[in-house]
Amino acid sequence: xxxxxxxxxxxxxxxxxxxxxxxxxxxKATTTEDNNGGGGGAxxxxxxxxxxxxxxIEHRTxxxxxxxxxxxxxxxxxFCGYANLLGCALNVIYVYIEAFLCFFVKTITSx
Length: 111
Description:
Strand content: 5-15%
Strand order of the largest sheet: 1-2
Order of helices and strands: EEHH
Number of helices: 2
Helix content: 55-70%
Distance between the termini: 98 Å
Low-confidence stretches: 20-36
Shape: rod-shaped
Structural class: mainly alpha
């Protein structure tokens, strides 16, 4: 990868104190490298970005694990709900069978 271009900041105006040129104003453009101690600024930014990416990956990994746990929980809830539904359906079937048998027995005994 190529390094990002050096960004120039707003010119810094300094006044010289003392000496024969005390009224002269000097404009100096500073770069991000000057503020970070020379050419190490790009490396510092890269390390910061790497740390941020590692932290983001860790966060996303924990988030995925949390979502997997939630998905497992809800799948269990669906399974239990389905089992309860089948149990209720069987109870309804038993009630119908019992009603049919009672009707059948009454029909046979009344003859």
